[in-house]
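Dig into my protein:

:::
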Amino acid sequence: MREMPAFTRPVNKAIGKTYLRCGRDILSHMVGGRLSKADALKRLRDCLENGIVEYHDHFEKRCRERGIDPQDAQRALQKGTIYREPELDVRFQEWRYRVEWTTPEGQAIALIVAFPEENETLAITALLIRGAR
């Protein structure tokens, strides 16, 4: 299997972060707010064209374990759809979005992404979808 593209810079979300205990404080201090599904897709596509897309080590590991081809993962980011509302990851103080796509072979996959910065997408993990749409 081909390797995922190399990181453009190291990813360590714990450095420089202060974890807050109160949900209200977390929401008010987050980098960027919750995006609509359409705005999240627009930001993802903008990052693919003009920004930074980073692949976390966990993402690469899950792709290998689940037999998801790196090219299919890339196509999912380019052409996938966000059907579900985003979920707040309190630990990392960021909204996570699930991008779904079906490969040419018919396998439905989902990629979980976040937007740590305005022009940056972080691919966090990859899933196989059972009983796809």
